[in-house]
TrEMBL record:
Domain Methyltransferase type as annotated: residue spans: 58-146
Pathway: Cofactor biosynthesis; biotin biosynthesis
Keyword S-adenosyl-L-methionine attached: yes
Gene: bioC
Organism per entry: Thalassolituus maritimus
Keywords for the protein's UniProt record, in alphabetical order: Biotin biosynthesis, Methyltransferase, S-adenosyl-L-methionine, Transferase
Gene3D superfamilies: Vaccinia Virus protein VP39
Family: Belongs to the methyltransferase superfamily.
Protein name: Malonyl-[acyl-carrier protein] O-methyltransferase
Function, as annotated: Converts the free carboxyl group of a malonyl-thioester to its methyl ester by transfer of a methyl group from S-adenosyl-L-methionine (SAM). It allows to synthesize pimeloyl-ACP via the fatty acid synthetic pathway.
InterPro entries (alphabetical): BioC (IPR011814), Malonyl-ACP_OMT (IPR050602), Methyltransf_11 (IPR013216), SAM-dependent_MTases_sf (IPR029063)
Coiled-coil ranges from the UniProt annotation: none
């Protein structure tokens, strides 16, 4: 798998911070589903917070912070949002209250004590990890025993339409790589988690043009950062060629350009 530059990832997400919430249709659906599954899987407790959260919760790769108030509303007494992109945290401050802390940090090196958190969520961040076992082991370190974890990540097949189209034009790396469901679940196990629930689903967005599709990816910071990538959108000629070979669908008489995401949701616990 080609290596990815963490700081390049951080820079592209920082640049996308102000456009992210407007453009992130699939991403919003994923985090909404993640929070709903967290509610459904959280065990009932003999208190007024039956089925709700409690204590200190982490949101790793919190982005613009859309999940932070939901964690507070669900019962978390304090919430810490962590992201590598300063621009994202700047936007996230608008979603924060006085019981929410925001930290600029690498998900592989959290500036936190051992066993300081009661639970953790992470939506569409883990797929950026070069070493998922290392990343998950660090998350395990900061969690208390029997703490819940809810994670959404991406699987192979994500952006398959774009991959298929580019493969007809050149041999460059245009799509970020993703690891399999089996390998992700195994990474959780190796890091010390017990996976209690896992499900995946294919979500698709549709665009009026390839240019709009690529701009949408740029607006959420989810462009290709692998070695050997082509800079920018590829030039007018490349865009013309891409639009000619891109798989399309017809909707109410209009040609639409689909872009699919294979999403995996995992609910796990520390031992």
């Amino acid at each position: 798998m080609p290596s990815r530059d963490k700081q390049q990832v951080a820079r592209q997400f920082s640049r996308a911070a102000t456009s992210y919430d407007r453009a992130a249709g699939i991403q919003q659906r994923v985090v909404t589903s993640l929070l709903e599954q967290l509610k459904q899987n959280s065990p009932e407790t003999p208190s007024e917070h039956t089925g709700m959260l409690a204590g200190h919760w982490l949101d790793i790769g919190c982005g613009t912070g859309v999940a932070l108030p939901h964690l507070r509303h669900m019962g978390a007494s304090t919430v810490t949002g962590v992201d590598l992109a300063e621009g994202m945290l700047s936007v996230a401050r608008a979603h924060s209250d006085n019981q929410t802390q925001l930290i600029l940090a690498d998900a592989d090196h959290l500036p936190m004590d051992n066993h300081c958190a009661d639970g953790l969520i992470s939506s569409l961040m883990l797929q950026w990890s070069e070493a998922p076992v290392t990343t998950l082991t660090e998350w395990h370190r900061v969690l208390k025993p029997r703490s819940p974890v809810a994670v959404a990540t991406l699987l192979p097949g994500t952006q398959s339409e774009l991959l298929q189209a580019w493969q007809q034009i050149d041999n460059r790396q245009h799509i970020n790589d993703f690891i399999t469901r089996e390998n992700i679940i195994e990474a959780f196990t190796q890091a010390g988690f017990v996976v209690e629930h896992a499900q995946n689903e294919r979500l698709t967005e549709h665009y009026a043009s390839v240019t709009q599709l690529l701009r949408g990816l740029k607006d959420i910071g989810a462009t290709n950062v692998n070695a050997g990538r082509r800079a920018g959108l590829g030039g007018k000629q490349a865009l013309k060629e891409l639009e000619e070979v891109y798989p399309t669908e017809e909707e109410n008489g209009n040609i639409r350009f689909p872009l699919s995401y294979e999403v995996l949701w995992i609910y796990a616990r520390t031992v």
